[in-house]
Design brief:
Strand content: 15-25%
Shape: elongated
Distance between the termini: 52 Å
Strand order of the largest sheet: 8-7-6-9-10-13-12
Number of strands: 19
Order of helices and strands: EEHEEEHEHEEHEHEHEHEEHEHEEHEHEE
């Protein structure tokens, strides 16, 4: 078992976000397999060789090409459209289309992300003609004679198109395996849905490599399929997306895995987001208040010192614009920092004992949690100041006279 550690790879899993993987196949070079379509033997032989470096996540078992770069796949010149005319495959498509629509008592407004040749979406429209059906694919077909079907040759952007369309159903078939970060993609869909208060059903479908792994099959692993889902990694991805998984199954003799999930159900994400925005807004107001206080301090005519020149103190000095011209005096408890300068503003950092012979009237202590220790330091070595200021609740607060949790 100890020998396994030498195989450790620090790679982020596209399905679950775990950061430890191990080699799955030896690295190799191969040309594009599905979107190249060379028109001559010479063109075929001259094709660029791209790196395959398939690794496997030790958390969920997902297999992915760590050397993949999306920009090296020329979808704009050679769109990748699935061959949907095989007899068994066509039957699977029809079966899944009906299975999807059975979840709706009324015709849905459906969105397909990556509609390709449009056949799946048009099939749904014919099966349940009262609905609306919108496809997004920058390289897909852009015209149909079916009145309630619209194809847009653009990428689907959750924060733009979900509020615009407010769909009941979102479909993504054989798209996730091409993405750099499918986990991010679904998490974004779910959060955007929660933000606008809708809970559409998401239907996703991807190739499944369970049989490939058990049978040592290698033909599945080529450049365009960056992500290779196992049943375990597919389920793990959904569990990490803030969705309510309703059904997971396999079709086409286990070669494809599908899932139904309800988006927009994770209120924890909304609470955290609201808390974050509230904090940002409060800080914006606080910055104006504190900068006004800083200006008043400069004009009050008293001698002022800032205690601390790096870390939190440097962050405070830069955020509230305590420049070296107006606030030149900075001291620090750490003698090793003496003689260096405050990052960004350039004040010379002096050792704290400088204040014994050069007393000041006002002392600003940016790291509130250290204020009690600093005051004890000052008492021990005989440093005094008329007023000690810390940042609290969005303003500069008198440490001795006002209420705060740092005493």
């Amino acid at each position: 078992m100890n020998s396994l550690v030498r195989f450790l790879r620090e790679e982020k899993c596209p399905a679950c976000g775990h950061h430890v993987a191990v080699p799955f196949l030896d690295p190799s070079l191969q040309p594009l397999a599905t979107v190249a379509w060379p028109l001559s033997a010479d063109e075929a032989e001259a094709m660029q060789q791209l790196p395959l470096d398939f690794v496997r996540c030790v958390e969920c078992g997902h297999v992915f090409n760590a050397a993949f770069e999306y920009t090296r796949v020329p979808y704009s010149r050679k769109p990748h459209r699935m061959f949907n005319k095989g007899i068994n495959w066509s039957e699977n498509i029809q079966t899944m289309g009906r299975k999807i629509l059975r979840r709706f008592s009324n015709p849905p407004h459906a969105v397909e992300i990556g509609h390709g040749d449009g056949s799946f979406l048009m099939g749904l429209a014919k099966e349940m003609p009262g609905g609306k059906y919108t496809g997004f694919d920058p390289y897909g077909i852009n015209f149909t004679e079916i009145e309630n079907v619209q194809f847009r040759t653009s990428l689907f952007e959750a924060k733009i198109h979900l509020p615009e369309i407010r769909p009941d159903l979102i479909i993504s078939r054989h798209v996730l395996e091409h993405l750099i970060d499918p986990l991010e993609f679904i998490q974004g869909l779910s959060f955007a849905a929660a933000c606008i208060g809708i809970q559409p059903i998401l239907y996703i479908e991807v190739p499944c490599i369970d049989r490939a792994v058990s049978a040592w099959r290698t033909v599945d692993f080529y450049y365009e399929h960056n992500s290779q889902f196992t049943s375990a990694s597919f389920q793990k991805m959904l569990r990490r997306c803030g969705v309510e998984t309703e059904e997971i199954g396999h079709i086409y003799d286990g070669e494809v895995i599908y899932g139904f999930a309800r988006l927009g159900v994770c209120q924890k994400h909304i609470r955290n987001a609201k808390c974050s925005i509230s904090f940002r807004n409060q800080v914006r107001e606080a910055e104006l208040r504190i900068q006004k206080q800083v200006d008043e301090l400069y004009h009050c005519g008293k001698t002022i010192c800032i205690w601390g020149g790096t870390g939190k103190s440097a962050a405070f000095i830069n955020r509230y614009k305590l420049d070296a011209k107006r606030f030149p005096l900075v001291v620090d408890s750490d003698q090793d920092k003496a003689g260096t300068y405050v990052p960004g503003t350039g004040q010379l950092i002096r050792f704290r004992d400088y204040l014994i012979e050069h007393p000041v009237q006002i002392l600003i202590i940016p790291p509130q949690w250290r204020a009690k220790d600093i005051l004890r330091e000052m008492e021990q070595i005989g440093i005094r100041a008329e007023q000690i200021l810390i940042e609290h609740n969005g303003c500069l607060t008198d440490y001795r006279k006002e209420d705060h949790p740092y005493k």
